[in-house]
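P.,

For your records, the input lines for the assembly:
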Amino acid sequence: MKPAITIHDLSKKYTLQQGTPYVALRDVISNGFKNAFSKNEKRSQFWALKDINLEVGPGERIGIIGANGAGKSTLLKIISRITPPSSGKIILNGRVASLLEVGTGFHPELTGRENIYLNGSILGLTKKEIDKKFDEIIDFSGVESFIDTPMKHFSTGMQLRLAFSVAAHLEPEILLIDEVLAVGDMEFQKKCMGKMEEISTQSGRTILFVSHNLASIGSLCNKAILLEEGKIVLADSAKRVIEQYTSDIADSSPEIYKAYKDQKLPLFFSKIYFADNNNKQKNIFNLDEEIILNFELDNNGWNSICTIGFAINDQFGKRLLRDEKEVDCRNLSGTIKGKIIVPKGMLTPHVYFIDLSILNKNIEVIQILKGFMKFEILISNTKYEFINYDYGVINKGCTWFI
Amino acid sequence: MAENQIIIEPHSRLSLRFRELWQYRELFYFFTWRDIKVKYKQTYLGIIWALIQPLSLMLLFTFVFSKNLNFSSSPLRYEIFVLSGLILWNLFYSSVSMASESMLQHAAIIKKVFFPRLIIPVSSILAALFDFIIALIAFLIFSIVYNVFPGWTAFYSFPFAILLILVSAFGTGVFLSALNIKYRDFRYVVPFVLQFLFFATQVVYPLNKIEPDWLRYSMALNPVNGAVELFRYAYTGQFESAIVIISAASALFITFIGLLYFRKSEAYFADLS
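Structure tokens returned:
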């Protein structure tokens, strides 16, 4: 069988310009005068993708993983022919459709029915194909009672459902998906996810899937590639690549706080780090792990009671929690070791920052460290897999009676 | 299977890629249909809008020019003379202005979905053609009311005149639409130039009154002049072939340049818009 996608030495270069990519005629004219008299300044170039080689067999489902700016979306844009490569070649066997953005071309003045035809034909369906799938599309979207109402009277949610419905009923051999699951309400997202899996597993089409949600890549894809600064650093099974990626993130931020040598305070934090149950130092935790903050205090002659304050803030600096503990330092000289255990499953997946302080018995500050360290809780539970959804920070359900 | 193979390369050689356009032929229809539908859904008077503007201008020009300036538009009645020029000019004007704005209006789609970009300006010209056909029917009725009938030559002079307008509007429109994406302030120049061009078109005056010859021939570089000449031929039975030939050559040249520029820059539209 011929491979579905073959990529040879693909590179994409962007020329960085100040301001917008388009220009005003007035600037061209005035720059023309300027450049005639001065040396042409070099514009900086940036490789969004560099020497990508990849072969994807028919029916393979490839997850594309990487940090922001690693080139994930650029790769999908080139494969979907929205932007051309700077060098290299791609051979695609089969029709390509992308779900880069759903609802493209919807017009508010047209009815739902008319928009299905318009949107479908923009995505490359023929009228005949749309006719054939029309009922299925409306069924799936669940907006049949509004289908002859102008789109402007649809709620955003309804528009998204209709848009996804159209896109989901494309039948290309190669499907490109970029974070589309982050739309609509929970129930509809589940439905989308189910449809995705159905499309990908049952009808055996080739899928390229870009997402920040490692859990859904893990469940949807059998293979994955890891992109870093426009290069493929790893192509392997999805599980293997996800492991590599998460350990990469963890390795890149093994934050340990260490005090300056010439610290002159009578009592201060000399070492602080996060660790898990097995005392393995790390800053990234799963939802069901205890987060343990280990600290060491150096006592340079503090002979009294002190209070250690601990707080967790969100990324905007909003305080979420504060706790404190009184410590009698009179019999403790040299290094005082301690640990703070944040109960497992208390916080939802986010990045959190901490404050630590030491106060005397008159509640005067001896030392304060604000927002100086962070820890992250990973999306690993299916409960929190929709990244654009605001789950808040407290990982706790309520008791319901209906 | 082979027919479904797509090869993506950096700089594909300059070709019109008709096969691709043919594959997406339904999109021409859907974009045109949407433009027409949306336009008339938003107005109460609907189709009448396509008629009010040329009719009111015709009345104005008749009032101002036919009595006071004494253009001898003979052998055609001045009202018919002006109106025939106006509807053709309007076809050119609205095609060019709609096409040149079209790429910017579709920037959101261009960034997200692939399809042959040429469909966008062409569809907006087709939507303008729809308005024209309504105006043309109204014009024919109007002229019959005035007891003016076109000759048999209308069977070829009308289609050729319209074709000449469409070809030149296509060339100008695609050129401007590509320029508009790259140079954002170009759009302010377009209405001004079109305004100027209107007075260089034989709408309110007959071109054959222009002397000397070299001036008349250089005015024929404006393809609308040739088209109007051809169109009125069905009524007057007289036309200057040099004017039509110059206009046709000019239209083809404009289209060649416009298409060349559009094709050269279309690959980068998504990065620019």
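Two observations worth noting. The longest strand of chain B covers residues 5-8. Chain B touches chain A at residues 1, 4-11, 24, 26-27, 30, 34, 37-38, 41-42, 108-115, 181-186, 189, 267-268, 270-273 (CB under 8 Å).

Regards
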